Amino acid sequence: MKFKIDRSSFYEVLSELSRSISAKAEPQIMNGIKMTAHSEGVTLIVSNHLFFVEKTIPLEAKGQLTVYETGSVVVPAKYLVELVKKLPGELTVELIGQHKLSIKTEEISVVLSSFDVEAYPNTPVLDLGKGVQIPGPLLNEMISQTAFAASSIDTRPVLTGLLVTLQENKIICAATNSHRLAMRESEIEIDIEGSYIIPLASVKEFMRLFNSSKDLITVYICGNHLVFKTLNLAMYTRLIEGNYPNLNSLIPAHPKTLITVQTSKLLKGIDRASLFNRESRNNNVKLELINGSTLKITSYSPDLGKIEETQQIIDVYGEKELSLSLNSIFLIEALKAFTEEEVTLNYSGSMRPILIKPNSNKRHLHLISPVRG
């Protein structure tokens, strides 16, 4: 293996990928970056126990890369990144012997010990027939509007992930911690079906790597892995095994009261009301419909005091009644996930979950269970 590469572009890729490596990776080879020089460029791979990340630097990258010999090597990521950061100019990278990597500039020569490349785990083999293309901005939006509702407690592992369902020309992203539910659905051409639970750590890594992607992202199903791939970037994530709850059964079918409010105004009101409760275990706010036209928002802290405000609602349908207490953090996160100017609160009773939906045709909802008090 031998190639010449521009230092700054090489460092940019190495720095991005090294952030995907676990700080306590075992065995030691999992602290490494695998580099493979081939006829189309140089591909770099990092891994941890949940996912692989693969990035290719193509030959056509504005003359920044020239490949002289093909081959592969695995080197410690920490030292490779620091070396490339500190070296000047163009770099010549060459495998010498079985476990030595040479990195040279015009005036500097470094030899870095490497791992046995055969001991590095292989990425799953892509089944090109099991893939679906989704616009990057759409997939990122759907994930960011739902993933935060997943559980952070691993007593029920399936709830610690994001559920992605492909069916009937639509994709659905959903997450729940059993106290709240976030769900977003979009129509898209799909000829494969299935439901897959992605670990929350992998979801966060996806959002870091693909958050600025404007291209189509192809999603492949590979056994117990889901793969997200653009032209030069791929992420292979393991899936959580188990049966996810039937979410449709949780959604109230016939609410007795529908109240339309301004999203940003309600969000600001809830944020103000939660001021005294942010550092306490009781971070609840109470919502009440007053005289069928005004929404009262109240919070109380025995140590700090009481906050109360009223807001005019836009519209009400059905019974002019609403009175329930909600976790203010859940409510704030749900409201922040909506991009629409107006949302509708679907109320079924003081101890029934409240359903929040945009006042539009977009299939996006949040369900929050009430709390006592």
Name a few traits of the molecule.
single chain; 373 residues; DNA Polymerase III, Chain A, domain 2; Proliferating Cell Nuclear Antigen; 9-stranded antiparallel beta sheet; 8-stranded antiparallel beta sheet; 26 strands; 17% helix
How would you sum up this structure, described in words?
Helices cover 17% and strands 43% of the residues. The protein has helices at 7-18, 77-86, 136-144, 200-210, 263-273, 328-336; strands at residues 2-6, 32-38, 41-47, 51-58, 65-69, 71-76, 90-95, 100-104, 109-113, 131-135, 161-167, 170-176, 180-187, 194-199, 216-222, 225-229, 233-238, 257-262, 284-290, 294-301, 305-312, 315-318, 323-327, 342-347, 354-358, 363-368. The longest helix is centred in the first third of the chain and has 12 residues, at 7-18. Strand 12 (170-176) and strand 13 (180-187) form a beta hairpin. Helix 1 runs antiparallel to helix 2 (77-86). The protein has three domains: 2-119, Roll (DNA Polymerase III, Chain A, domain 2); 131-248, Roll (DNA Polymerase III, Chain A, domain 2), CATH 3.10.150; 251-368, Proliferating Cell Nuclear Antigen (Box), CATH 3.70.10. Strands 14-11-12-13-26-25-24-18-22 form a nine-stranded antiparallel beta sheet. Strands 6-2-3-4-17-16-15-10 form an eight-stranded antiparallel beta sheet. The chain is built from six helices and 26 strands. It is an alpha+beta fold.
Note the topology.
Blueprint: E1 2-6, H1 7-18, E2 32-38, E3 41-47, E4 51-58, E5 65-69, E6 71-76, H2 77-86, E7 90-95, E8 100-104, E9 109-113, E10 131-135, H3 136-144, E11 161-167, E12 170-176, E13 180-187, E14 194-199, H4 200-210, E15 216-222, E16 225-229, E17 233-238, E18 257-262, H5 263-273, E19 284-290, E20 294-301, E21 305-312, E22 315-318, E23 323-327, H6 328-336, E24 342-347, E25 354-358, E26 363-368
Antiparallel strand pairs: 1-5, 1-7, 2-3, 2-6, 3-4, 4-17, 7-8, 8-9, 10-15, 11-12, 11-14, 12-13, 13-26, 15-16, 16-17, 18-22, 18-24, 19-20, 19-23, 20-21, 24-25, 25-26
Helix pairs in contact: 1-2, 5-6
